[in-house]
Amino acid sequence: MTEEIKSWLTDMDGVLVHEGYALPGAAEFIARLTELDRPYQVLTNNSIFTPRDLSARLAASGIKVPEERIWTSALATATFVAQQMPGGRAYVIGEAGLTTALYQAGYIMTDVDPDYVILGETRTYSFSSITRAIRLIRDGARFIATNPDPTGPSTEGPLPATGAVAALITKATGRSPYFVGKPNPVMIRAALNRIEAHSETTAMIGDRMDTDVLAGMEAGLRTFLVLTGSTTEADVEKYPFRPTEVRPSIAELIDRV
Ligand SMILES: [Mg+2]
Predict the structure, then answer these.
(1) How far is the centre of ligand 1, averaged over its atoms, from the C-alpha of 26 (Å)?
(2) Which of 1, 17, 26, 181 has the fewest CB atoms lying closer than 10 Å?
(3) Spatial separation of the C-alpha atoms in residues 119 and 220, rounded to whole Å
(4) Collapsed DSSP state (helix, strand, coil) of residue 25
(5) Ligand 1 center to residue 82 CA distance, Å?
(6) What are the 10-residue block averages of pLDDT along the chain, 257 residues in total?
(7) What is the CATH number of domain 7-45+182-256?
(8) In the chain, what are the domain boundaries?
(9) Computed over its alpha carbons, how large is the radius of gyration of the chain?
C-alpha cells in the first residue's frame, strides 16, 4: 500500500506558469498547500533570478509563493559547492540569481586561480568571459554548470541556454561540467532536505519527462506529469521510464493535497 503524500515538489514553468501567466489551477493548488500547511518547494532550473525575484514574478501572475519556498538550480549549485569545498573561490558566468546564492554560501568570486568555473544562465554571454572560463578550466579549475537545458523559451523563439554554452566550453577544453540542476537527483534531494521531507511521502509534479519525471523517479518520489507544458500524452510512451500518473493539469491535483 502506498503511503499518503505529505510533501510536494513542483516545477514552475509549464506547471504553474507559462510566459508570465498562471496556468489553470496553479494559484488554487499553492493556496491549498498553504492552507493545509503542507511542506513544499517550487523548483526551477532557471538560474538567472533570485528566489525573491521569482516570488515577485509569481505574485504578479496571481500565485503567492514566499521566497523560501523557491528552490533554483543556482541555490542548489551554491549549496553543492559549499558542501564539497567550503569557503571556496569561483569564476562565475551568470546573473544575480547565481552570484547572490554563491556569496550567501560563503564563496569568493574571482578570475584568478579559482577552485571552480561555475556557468549559469545569462542573456548576455560574452566572448571574453567564455574565453576566460576556457583558460581557467585548462589551468585546472573544476567545471560546474547550473543546468543542462540547451535552450530556454522566449516570446520570439528559443534562446541558447546554459547547456549550449557548456557544450561550447567542453569542445574547447575537452572537459564536461558537472550539472547540478534537474535531472540530477541532487537537486531533488537538496529540496527534500530543505523541508525535512522524505522521498516515500513526497510527490514531484513536472511537465517534462527528461528532467522533472526522471529526477523525481531517480530520487524515489512519486511523479505526476502534467500536460500543460512541453509534453503530450503520446510522448510519454517514447521513454523507458514512466511517471506514476499523467494528469491534464495541476488543477486535477488540488484534491490530492
Ligand atoms: Mg517545466
Answers:
(1) 13
(2) 1
(3) 28
(4) coil
(5) 27
(6) 88 95 98 98 97 98 98 98 98 98 98 98 92 98 97 87 97 98 97 97 97 97 96 96 98 97
(7) 3.40.50.1000
(8) 7-45+182-256, 85-179
(9) 18
